[in-house]
Amino acid sequence: MSIGVGWSIGVSTGAFTGAITGAGAVVVSLTAPGYRLPCAATLRAVPDFADDSSTELERKAKALKFVALFETVTYLLLAYFWLVAHNDTLKAVVGFFHGLVWMTFVAMTVIIRPDIGWTWVYTALVVVTGPIGGVLVWWRLRTTPRAALVPHRSPAADR
Question: From CA 14, how far away is CA 79, in angstroms rounded?
Answer without folding.
Answer: 59
